[in-house]
Amino acid sequence: MAKITYKIRFWFETFFRSCTRQFRMVLADAGVMLFFLALPLAYPVVYTLIYNPEVVREIPIAIVDNSRTAESRHLARMIDATENASVAGYAASLAEARKWAMERKVYAVIVIPGDYAKKLGRHEQAVLPTYCDMGLMIRYRNLLFALTDVTLQLGADIRAEAIDNIPAGALLAEVTEKSVDTQAFMLGNPTQGFASFIMTGLVILILQQSMVLGVMMLGGGSTERRRKNSGIDPLEINGPMSASVLGRALCVVTIYAPLTVYILHYVPLMFHLPLFGSPWQYLPLALPFLFASAFLGMMLRPLVSERESSFLVFVFTSVIFLFLSGLTWPRSAMSPLWHAVSSIVPASWGMQGFIGINSNAGTLELASEPYMWLWGLAALYFIIAVIVEKLCIRHDLRRYGK
């Protein structure tokens, strides 16, 4: 019984000593402090400022008016009056408008055919050929919305005018002009802004990658010390490896706790980003996410032999993790292989859970799948990190030991 009590006490002593030692190492390391503090504090603010204003307005377009009638000029004025499009000029021909587009003076060309007014007078359908620059989807989307709204409104006006010309037309127009009306509610992103769309999930990836980078830099520093001291790290606490790994992870999670509150709660308030969920619902989701990210950094330690090597891993994995997260492409549309790879990245589940709670006013109960996955990944990566740490110590002793 005394032996068991001693082992338990020794385990907790190692745990607390590893945690306090890690705190001293982090505070004494300017490079690690830069990535643990400066990066999470500055990146969300800088990124959000870059994406402000959130929407693209007054996109220049060219009009090729082959009709040259009052109706065609009215159509051009309606398009120019929208908030998304601005008529930059009238081109004499489609070739001239195409030249403007190639010179990046305009991003869309609308051709009004010569029989436009005639078809309207005959109550026939008129076709408006539209050429859009697809180089940037946000421009194409806004131009499409502007043209769609104008054509729908113009069609409603023409029908109302036609009804007014028949007997009792005014009463009939009042009844039939808007027999069916539609209203759009943009859930999760009322402003339809780009920052509101991307920053809500990108902050999760910033938290993960900055933590992974700092943890791997600490691991690279330990490897360098072993290389100089015959395979022994003089700053390492001797004891159960599970206690040492958990203590170091607790230190990192403690440092990131206030940063997480700042990024997930105060940054959206500063820039008026969507913030519909309760902090008591999405902040508990951050706990397993932070532990999973810390253990992920320790698990990737064999990839880092020097402190500077962590930058290569950071740059290489950031783009991959962004595409696998489901932020730019839905995970449900991924192939089974990439869906499985995405499922082992903590940021993927962190984004899904946080966006579901924050943007749609959900609860932690509704985000139970990401929550359980994050705890599962934290447990899995903890076991792997313990094994990896043991193997790294043995490898360094054999390689650098005298």
Question: Short description, anyone?
Answer:
By secondary structure, the chain is mostly helical. The protein has helices at 2-28, 30-50, 70-81, 94-102, 116-121, 137-164, 169-176, 194-228, 241-271, 279-299, 309-324, 336-343, 346-358, 368-400; strands spanning 59-65, 85-90, 108-112, 130-132.
Fold and architecture overview:
This protein is mainly alpha-helical. The chain folds into 2 domains: 2-52 and 191-400, no CATH class; 59-176, abc type-2 transporter like domain (abc type-2 transporter like fold, 3-Layer(aba) Sandwich). 67% of the residues lie in helices and 5% in strands. The chain is built from 14 helices and 4 strands. A 4-stranded mixed sheet has the order 2-1-3-4, with helices on both faces. β1, α3 (70-81) and β2 form a beta-alpha-beta unit. α2 (30-50) runs antiparallel to α8 (194-228), α8 (194-228) packs antiparallel against α13 (346-358) and α10 packs parallel to α14. The chain is elongated. The two termini are 39 Å apart. The relative contact order is 0.12. It comes from Muribaculum caecicola.
Task: Looking at this protein, list some descriptive labels.
single chain; abc type-2 transporter like fold; 4-stranded mixed β-sheet; 14 helices; 5% strand; 402 residues; mainly alpha
Q: Which class do the helix and strand fractions yield?
A: mainly alpha
Overall morphology? elongated
Report Rg. 30 Å
The average pLDDT is: 84
Q: What is the straight-line distance between the termini? A: 39 Å
Protein name: ABC transporter permease
Organism: Muribaculum caecicola
